[in-house]
Structures are given as structure tokens and as C-alpha cells.
């Protein structure tokens, strides 16, 4: 039975933009309409904490074999970013405010402890099943963030070793941003 923590989640674009609320009739003075700022409904991802789609820049994506920017999504209510290489693999980066490494280890008895840069981490994979899934969870040293999970799934659900190599590479690339 696979022990991987996460599955590749289909990207669901959920970007938001601030609408331009200012309007004018074009005539100076008479007929001008001034705009009144509308209060936001809550903090943006950047204000709330780490933006998972901002953790990998273009150079980092290239190093990880990713050819395009990720798509914002959520995993179990946590902000995440999906990267999909059609026919090859997918990577999901999730910023988790609630699950620490001890909880990850408790859920996955085959978890392997490791260090990624200066961060303690846990790798979870069922190497015997060789199902092409692997997860690396990094302890985050940022306020409001417990862990950052990197989940990799190969398109053919084979070659767990390759999935773990890619998950570890992505973890190494984002570690400086999360510690």
C-alpha cells in the first residue's frame, strides 16, 4: 500500500486580481468621478505567509526539470502550487501551517529522516511498491508555517527512485526560502 503523503492534485487556477475601481468621465473638473478604496476581504497569500508558487523561480524550475510556472491550488485547505509536465510527472508544493515533522512521521511509519540544507526533513515513499510517488517534507523556520511538503508523482506511476530524486531536488531548491 503506498505511503506517500500527497497525490498530485489537478491544478485549479485560483488567481485573483485587484479590479481597477477608479473611473473618470474624461473631462477635468466637471463630471469627474473619484474612486473610493474598497477594503480587502483578507490578506493575500504573500501577506499571509509563504506563496508556494513563488518558491521556485525560473532557474530553479529549470533545475528541477519543470518547464512552466505552477498553478495555485489548495491541498486540504493549505495553499499549494501544482507543476505538471504532461506525460512525465507532476510536482505539488504545499505550505502547511498545522502539520509538523513529528506528525508526518507518525502518519508514515516508513518515513526516512534526513536533512535538506539546514532543515530537518522527512522523506516518505513506498520503495517496495515502486508506485512512482514520493514526498519530502521540510521543517519550516518561518512564523505561521510548520512544514513545506513536496510531492512528486510520475505519470506512469513507476520509478519511485526517480520521484524521490526529483522531490529531493525541489526540496534543496526551496529550502533557503523556507528556513
Query: How many separate helices?
Result: 4
Shape: globular
**Which secondary-structure class do the elements indicate?**
alpha+beta
How far apart the termini lie comes to 32 Å
Report strand %.
25-35%
The ordered H/E elements are: HHEEEHEEEEH
Q: What's the number of extended β-strand segments? A: 7
State the helicity in percent bands: 10-25%
Mean pLDDT value: 80
Main β-sheet, in a few words? 7 strands, antiparallel
Uncertain ranges: 1-48
Strand ordering within the main sheet: 1-2-3-7-6-5-4
The radius of gyration is 20 Å
Polypeptide structure, described:
The two termini are 32 Å apart. The chain has 179 residues and is α+β, with helices and mostly antiparallel strands. It is globular and about 35 Å long. The protein has a domain of 120 residues. A seven-stranded antiparallel β-sheet has the order 1-2-3-7-6-5-4, sandwiched between helices. A hairpin with a 2-residue loop joins strand 1 and strand 2. It is built from four helices and seven strands. InterPro entries: DUF3558 (IPR024520). Pfam families: DUF3558. This is DUF3558 domain-containing protein.
Defining traits:
single chain; 179 residues; alpha+beta; seven-stranded antiparallel beta sheet; 7 strands; 20% helix; globular; disordered N terminus
SSE order and pairing:
Elements: H1 45-48, H2 58-63, E1 71-75, E2 78-85, E3 89-96, H3 101-107, E4 112-116, E5 119-124, E6 133-139, E7 147-154, H4 160-178
Antiparallel strand pairs: 1-2, 2-3, 3-7, 4-5, 5-6, 6-7
Amino acid at each position: 500500500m503506498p505511503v506517500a503523503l500527497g497525490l498530485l492534485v489537478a491544478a485549479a487556477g485560483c488567481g485573483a486580481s485587484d479590479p481597477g475601481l477608479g473611473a473618470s468621465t474624461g473631462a477635468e473638473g466637471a463630471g469627474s468621478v473619484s474612486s473610493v478604496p474598497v477594503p480587502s476581504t483578507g490578506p493575500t497569500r504573500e501577506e499571509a505567509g509563504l506563496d508556494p508558487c513563488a518558491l521556485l523561480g525560473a532557474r530553479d524550475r529549470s533545475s528541477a526539470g519543470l518547464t512552466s510556472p505552477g498553478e495555485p491550488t489548495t491541498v486540504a485547505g493549505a495553499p499549494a502550487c501544482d507543476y505538471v509536465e504532461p506525460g512525465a510527472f507532476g510536482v505539488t508544493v504545499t505550505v502547511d501551517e498545522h502539520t509538523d515533522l513529528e506528525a508526518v512521521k507518525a502518519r508514515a511509519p516508513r518515513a526516512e529522516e534526513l536533512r535538506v540544507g539546514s532543515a530537518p526533513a522527512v522523506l516518505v515513499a513506498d520503495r517496495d511498491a515502486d508506485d512512482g510517488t514520493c514526498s519530502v517534507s521540510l521543517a519550516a523556520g518561518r512564523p505561521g508555517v510548520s512544514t513545506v511538503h513536496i510531492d512528486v508523482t510520475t505519470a506512469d506511476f513507476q520509478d519511485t527512485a526517480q520521484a524521490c530524486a526529483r522531490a529531493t531536488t525541489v526540496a534543496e531548491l526551496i529550502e533557503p526560502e523556507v528556513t
